[in-house]
Amino acid sequence: MGQVFALSFFSHRASPKRKNMIGTILGNRYEVFYHLGGGGFGQTYLAEDVEAERQWCVVKHLKPFLSPFYIPNLEKAEQLFDREIEVLRDLGQHNCIPSLLDFFTQAGERYLVQEFIDGRVFSKELDESLYFSEIQILTFLKNFLEILDFVHSHKVIHRDIKPPNIIRRRQDKKLVLIDFGAVKQIVSTEPSKQTATRIATHVYTPREQERGKPKLCSDIYALGVVAIEILIGCQPSIDEDTNEIDWQQHRQVSPELANLINKMVRERPVERYVSANETLQEVKKIIERFSPEVVAKSNREPTPYKFNYADYWCVEANKLRDIYGYCLSAMRLYDKAVEINPNHWKAWFNRGITLRYLRKYKESVQSFDNVIEIYPKSGKAQFQKGLSLSKDGNLLEAFDSFNLAIQINPLYPVAWFRKGVVLHALEKYDQASEAFEEAKKLRPSLGYTNFPQIF
After folding, report:
1. How remote is the C-alpha of 123 from its chain's centroid?
2. Which comes out higher in pLDDT, residue 138 or 452?
3. Of 166, 335, 425, 439, which is most buried with the most CB atoms under 10 A?
4. 6 has pLDDT over 70
5. What pLDDT is recorded for position 449?
6. Does 160 participate in catalysis according to the annotation?
7. Planar angle of CA 313, 325, 359, nearest 5 degrees
8. Is the pLDDT of residue 183 over 70?
9. How far apart are CA 393 and CA 388, in angstroms?
10. d(CA 212, CA 186)
11. Beta strands 100-106 and 55-62, pairing class
12. Structural element, H or E, at residue 42
């Protein structure tokens, strides 16, 4: 039931099956507006805290489906849910681990509320198949091992380290480790072998963890697999005979980096690094061999992946509005887009349309004014502004906007048509007829008889 932000989502979409949760207020303060994803044991949502200046937060909902597949592991799911609460209570003080905000029971169902991490899941960086230099990989390992060292110092084993559980935070490009419960990964065990519950993706899972006996170095193994994935651009394969990972045939690297990674992913735990701290010290030694300028650049540009967060939120808002009809939820995402980039005219444009759907005509006009300020030659923005003005009863101002749209693009049939509608409402029938005729020339389906549908 992991959180994925900006998520991969964010190519996650609001699911129609979870439609009834959108708009729900949980715990008398958390208003759900976006479905992040989930699995058989629960769902994860974005919500606004109405008591904390409407700050965004992540709500995890433990709600298993009542099917034979999930019932045997329900007790384990509840244990892991409780485990995540306890772990976040202790570890959430770290800047790169989500903080626990709240947990409660409502209508007999359990919820966990944690800090929203504004960023992009690391798996999306890898999906782009971009080339990471050795220093970028070492920087990734150093930054992540600093987090993992903190986790291990509290005697906690994460047990599910993989790219979807790592987020690159937008504001500072730092890595954030998420999903300490791993409830979503539970797989039913055989009735005669109820001693362990596997909670991780196979390629990242060392043998001892599959047997239900994870160690601190199990996390080191998983991180080593992630490093190999960064190096070769895909998940590595495991030799069925030796259970070792053979990756060096896919990319040549320095002996120091190769030795580091190979030791991280040894099949036998005793042959791996003992702890995150020991691994971190080895990584730092290798980094010292690079020039300060190269290291500084890798800190400034830790990934070759460039992601447009404003575009992302705008597209997700369009989906919420156009596919599922969630206009109020879409507004939150449009606002996020323009917060990130105040000059994102597409977000302002779609925000204006959505506000008109919500009958907030004056705010809609202001959104289109912002588009026009950014993009003065936008005839579409002038046209949409005219629609909002006419809906608000400001016919003279609407007439001016339709006229401006026509000046920018004289071959704009619906602008001519709407101009005719306004003129007709102003009882300027001859001019209205001329505008309708012009619209009909440009698009024969438009004509005088269509105008009553406008108001």
Report:
1. 11
2. 138
3. 439
4. no
5. 54
6. yes
7. 95
8. no
9. 9
10. 13
11. unpaired
12. strand 42-49
**Residue 270, exposed/middle/buried by CB under 10 A (0-12, 13-18, 19+)?**
exposed
Tokens of 241: 């005979």
pTM of the model: 0.83
Question: Which sequence spans correspond to the domains of the chain?
Answer: 16-115, 119-300
Among 273, 94, 308, 251, CA closest to 180 = 94
Residue 388 near residue 419, CB atoms below 8 Å: no
Among 49, 118, 160, 219, the active-site one is 160
Question: How is residue 238 written in tokens?
Answer: 């495991």
Chain centre to alpha carbon of residue 334 = 14
Q: In the chain, count H helices and then E strands.
A: 16, 9
C-alpha atoms less than 13 angstroms from C-alpha of 30 in its C-beta half-sphere: 26
Exposed/middle/buried for 253, CB within 10 Å: 0-12, 13-18, 19+? middle
Q: What pLDDT shows up at residue 415?
A: 97
CB 32 within 8 A of CB 22: yes
d(C-alpha 455, C-alpha 133), whole Å: 60
3-class SS of residue 190: coil
Lowest mean pLDDT among 25-39, 313-327, 421-435: 25-39
Closest CA to 225 of 208, 246, 209, 241: 246
Burial tier of 75 (Cβ tally within 10 Å: 0-12, 13-18, 19+)? exposed
For 50-165, strand residue ranges (E) read: 55-62, 100-106, 109-115, 119-121
User: DSSP string covering 208-234, please?
Assistant: HHHTT---HHHHHHHHHHHHHHHHHSS
Which whole number is the average pLDDT over 199-226?
A: 88
Q: Which of 148, 323, 293 is nearest to 221 (CA)?
A: 148
State how far the alpha carbon of 359 is from the alpha carbons of 125, 352, 362, 383, 387, in Å. Answer: 40, 10, 9, 17, 12
Which residue would you say has higher pLDDT here, 303 or 266? 266
Domain 16-115 in CATH 3.30.200.20 = yes
Please identify, in words, the CATH class of the domain defined by 119-300: mainly alpha
Count the residues in the chain: 455
| Cα(189)–Cα(72) distance, integer angstroms | 8
What mean pLDDT, rounded, does the chain reach? 86
Q: What is the pLDDT of residues 342-374, one digit of tens each?
A: 999 999 999 999 999 999 999 999 999 999 999
Contact 394, 364 (CB under 8 A): no
